[in-house]
Amino acid sequence: MTKLPKLRPALLLAATLALAACGNERLFTAPVFPEAGLERVPSQFRTLEVQDVSLPDYAASGQIPARQADGSVKSSRSVLWADEPTRAVTLELARLLRQITATEVAAEPWPYFDSAQAQLQVRVESMLAEGDGSFRLTGQYFVAPTDGRRGRSDDFMIAVPVSAPGGPSEIADARSQAVLALARQIARGGLR
Hints:
8 strands; 4 helices; alpha/beta; Rossmann fold; five-stranded mixed sheet
């Protein structure tokens, strides 16, 4: 077995920074909403585990996709999300549900010794900036209590406007607004 040389931490950091400087990618992240501005919705569950949100392939890639006039979906390789989309949307949804419901909410894997009282699954069919100037988020969610109570599910069809000029920053803002609308719908319809 051949031994690989150990890289010194400083050398590794320098190599990482050099590689990062080679690309001209622009990274975008969704804005964080202040907790004070969010309405409170009571939840029947004290604890909730949010499972990884299921996204379509084009939405799960690091690129920011948009529908073109001909109906095709196009992504630019130089414009990327700052975080892996499945992880980012899952964590954002968990944070928003925690803020809205004042329930102990965490993304999977559940970090506590006791099991969560319910699990949330979100399956996204479409998450895309559309050619008509809107951002659409559609799919279905499922709330499954772990104590044998009957679960709940519902479809969601959310559309929010993408501000002008409709670039990556505005798409990131619209995505956040759509995830906030989804969190409110889940809190009102699935957790009460």
